[in-house]
């Protein structure tokens, strides 16, 4: 866990016209009124690149989480020469075992007003929103070795909340306005650009192996054996409820989330992948529960989902696996030595009655040698050629001795 305290060799200074800096109250404590703001990779460690917000809620065990750029892992690996091995794991946005065996009564009495628009009312209700959070980015490049990845991401999980509980919302002659969710064990989960694993692997002279798992937007075992009552009793009483009303209801939305991108390219080796993605799961919610919404002498307006164990899921470009595998033979790195080149060479020879001249070069292919022969009777022609050749080589004239 990262520490927010500065080391002994680090000093923070301000201009002389300002008072010495003091740590903000929000750094380690919860603000008055139940609103908690946390900026950091984890709940206790502020950092500039992440934002996590918990909104207030009325009731018992309710949770509202907003994560922006939270819990990401960026781990590029390059080995020249050698191998890469990664074991990255990130998890967050988990609500489990909240608001069980609880009772909540909310409402307005005569001429009173009750307004709760920020959070939820009831027990064990969970709202989780992730924006570009809990991603793992782990590219691997190996020269002369192998790549092995073991990456996991878990986010937006709500289990075992709001069971064996009751919530009652009433209005007398006043007005009751409730936003988000009313009841027990209701879950709302939204993921945008979150829970992705990006793990391209390139190996030259080795193999690639991937073991990637991502899990997100899971709601299980919530709002069982519970009851919710929404009622307007007075003649002018008004109850307005938005979002979700009841027990164990689930709303899940994902966009560009929970994908695994794992292309594998191996030169001289093999590719093996074990990738799994699980998202937008709703199971075992709202069983043995009851919801009662009535106007009585007043009016009741309910917008959204009402009942027990209802599930609404939307997914766009999410929960996909991209795993193209390509293998190729290792390219040859041998080189042919360069061919030596020499200038033209000339050779002349004389024999009894015969004189021959040949010229050749080192270029490929070699030209055919040219040979000129003269008989012993052509003495004048021999002397003429010999004189010309001796003049080209810079030496004195040579005279062929004629027989007889």
TrEMBL record:
Residues 313-344 have a biased composition (Polar residues). Residues 268-293, 300-312, 345-367 have a biased composition (Low complexity). Residues 1-20, 208-245, 265-404 are annotated as: Disordered. Residues 9-20 have a biased composition (Basic residues). It comes from the Bacteria. This is Uncharacterized protein. It comes from Mycobacterium aquaticum.
């Amino acid at each position: 866990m990262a520490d927010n305290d500065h080391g002994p060799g680090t000093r923070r200074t301000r201009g002389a016209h300002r008072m010495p800096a003091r740590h903000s109250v929000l750094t380690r404590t919860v603000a008055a009124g139940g609103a908690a703001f946390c900026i950091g990779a984890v709940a206790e460690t502020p950092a500039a690149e992440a934002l996590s917000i918990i909104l207030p809620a009325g009731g018992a065990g309710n949770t509202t989480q907003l994560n922006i750029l939270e819990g990401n892992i960026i781990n590029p690996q390059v080995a020249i020469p050698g191998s890469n091995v990664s074991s990255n794991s990130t998890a967050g946005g988990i609500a489990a075992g909240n608001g069980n065996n609880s009772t909540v009564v909310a409402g307005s009495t005569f001429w009173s007003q009750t307004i709760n628009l920020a959070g939820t009312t009831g027990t064990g209700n969970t709202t989780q929103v992730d924006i570009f959070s809990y991603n793992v980015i782990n590219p691997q490049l190996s020269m002369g070795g192998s790549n092995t990845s073991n990456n996991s991401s878990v986010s937006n999980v709500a289990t075992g909340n709001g069971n064996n509980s009751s919530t009652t919302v009433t209005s007398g002659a006043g007005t009751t306005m409730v936003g988000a969710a009313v009841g027990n064990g209701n879950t709302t989960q939204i993921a945008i650009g979150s829970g992705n694993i990006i793990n391209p692997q390139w190996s030259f002279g080795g193999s690639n192996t991937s073991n990637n798992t991502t899990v997100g937007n899971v709601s299980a075992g919530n709002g069982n054996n519970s009851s919710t009552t929404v009622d307007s009793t007075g003649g002018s009483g008004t109850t307005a409820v938005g979002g979700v009303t009841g027990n164990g209801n689930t709303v899940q939305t994902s966009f560009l989330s929970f994908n695994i991108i794992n292309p594998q390219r191996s030169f001289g080796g093999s590719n093996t992948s074990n990738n799994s993605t699980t998202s937008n799961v709703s199971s075992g919610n709202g069983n043995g529960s009851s919801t009662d919404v009535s106007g009585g002498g007043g009016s009741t307006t309910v917008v959204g989902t009402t009942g027990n164990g209802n599930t609404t899921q939307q997914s766009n470009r999410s929960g996909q696996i991209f795993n193209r595998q390509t293998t190729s033979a290792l390219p040859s790195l041998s080189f042919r030595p360069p061919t030596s080149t020499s200038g033209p060479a000339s050779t002349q020879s004389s024999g009894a009655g015969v004189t021959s001249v040949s010229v050749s070069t080192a270029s490929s292919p070699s030209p055919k040698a040219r040979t000129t022969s003269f008989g012993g009777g052509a003495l004048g022609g021999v002397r003429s050629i010999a004189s010309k050749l001796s003049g080209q080589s810079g030496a004195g004239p040579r005279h062929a001795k004629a027989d007889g």
